[in-house]
Amino acid sequence: MPSSVPPGLPHVLRSLVYLSAPFLAVYVFSYFVKIPTWAFLVLQTVCLPIYLVACVKIKDFRGRRAAAHLGAIPPPSHDGESLGNIDILVKFQRIYKQGFLGDGVSEAHAELGGTFNLSILWDTTTVTNDVNVIKTVLATDFNNYVKGNFFQAFMYSVLGTGVFNADGMGCGCDFHCGARSITHNSQTPQARCGNAALHKMKERLVEGHAIDFQKAMQDLVSRFTLDSASEFLFGKCVNVLESPLPYPPQTPEASRQEEVLTLADKFARAFSRAQDTIAHRGRLGYIWPWLEIFNDKTGEDMEIVDSFLNPILEDALEKQRAEKKAGLWQDAKSDEVNDQDTFLDHLVRTTTDSQVIHDEILNILIAGRDTTAGTLTFAVYFLCMYPRVLERLRKEVLETVGYSRRPDYDDIKSMKYLRAFLNEVLRLYPAVPFNVRYAVNDTTVPNPDPTGRPFFVAAGQPKDYWGPDAPLSG
Ligand code: HEM
């Protein structure tokens, strides 16, 4: 994908230039002022820690001065017990593997309130779940916040220059308007793939097996969203729903079932792993480049992703070349969407840059597929947990849509209970539970205490949001 240079290398080289400054200063000093060799060696040994402590202190002083200038105070600080809060970093890594994403953060919110500062290895992030702060960042002070170089750097090997890695409201890049308008075309593929998924479940139930929620249901929903997304994005269903569902464990069929992976299955798995890797980079903060000096941890997976995706993209570009040759081709403006176009058709009408097309397609797949798969999985989970809700929802669907028709947009809009149900699922298990923005200039965000001074946010300091209503624990 974007580069053959390991993604950590440029960052580490930049850091090495920065870290070599004190050694260079000692060398220059000893050149002009004659000092004994032992003093030179001692200075060379201590200069780096002194330099780093000085940088932290200067940054701290600068922050306090800027806060005072803006009439603000720093938010409360979440402190661990070890140097640089390494214990918190380790705890968060453990939680990510064993618990719910927001577990460690929710404990800190319970102790410190809606907004607090978290410094990992002296790199400070303001974490908030305060709706007024989120409103400030996403609306009233929107122009002062960007996704930032750090975020874009660790995402780049997977997202490239696609919509999720671009600043602005998506429409900063012309394609995204098209992406929004074109999503209405997704209804037919979803209906077709939905039927295929229901058929798969019925088949298994007729065989006399339950659908194991964790293994089979999540698997089925992920395959349904990949099939419907691929059909609506490329106009070509990848048919991952065709592979058999996993049998419940402990059944004789499960022990006999061989896992045969199609190219589309391999694509889906590699794509998930690559997303996991970039999420892990984000959690490691500025340490991640040091772990990827020699290799790109998303490299192998992105090769699999590309071996699946590139032939589809190449086909579309080939079709474009052939139509141009035959004089049948029509360029499109980014906001003009032909009703019959898939998202890929629309992209090839607006650009011939295959990298841009590749990145945009992958970004929309991430935007639309995992969010939908996660939400549908939790929706089914809650329907199993709360039969009363299932009964009421079923009644609304049957009253609105009946027994034989497929729901259309107007039906979906008019089903109030369905909307309330989905909102509640998203409140409890948000598909996008965290988001990050960096402040361009020093600024302030509201303090929940109306008598207190506003909280200070330094330029370049990331802000993490976490949904205020997300679950506090399992
Ligand atoms: C439960 C379902 C979904 C949830 C919770 C969700 C949530 C979000 C959130 C929070 C963002 C903002 C990200 C940021 O600015 O950092 C976003 C952006 C985006 N989403 Fe979704 N999304 C969902 C489904 C979809 C679907 C189905 C599609 C398309 C097929 C889609 C396309 C996009 C695009 C293109 C963007 C980025 C462009 C922009 O900033 O306007 N999303 N989504």
Automatic annotation (TrEMBL):
Cofactor entry: heme
Entry keyword set: Heme, Iron, Membrane, Metal-binding, Monooxygenase, Oxidoreductase, Transmembrane, Transmembrane helix
InterPro entries in UniProt: Cyt_P450 (IPR001128), Cyt_P450_E_CYP52_fungi (IPR047146), Cyt_P450_E_grp-I (IPR002401), Cyt_P450_sf (IPR036396)
Stretches that traverse the bilayer: 12-32, 38-56
Gene3D superfamilies membership: Cytochrome P450
A Pfam family this chain is assigned to: p450
An MF annotation (GO) of this entry: oxidoreductase activity, acting on paired donors, with incorporation or reduction of molecular oxygen
Family designation: Belongs to the cytochrome P450 family.
Protein name as catalogued: Cytochrome P450
Source organism per UniProt: Cristinia sonorae
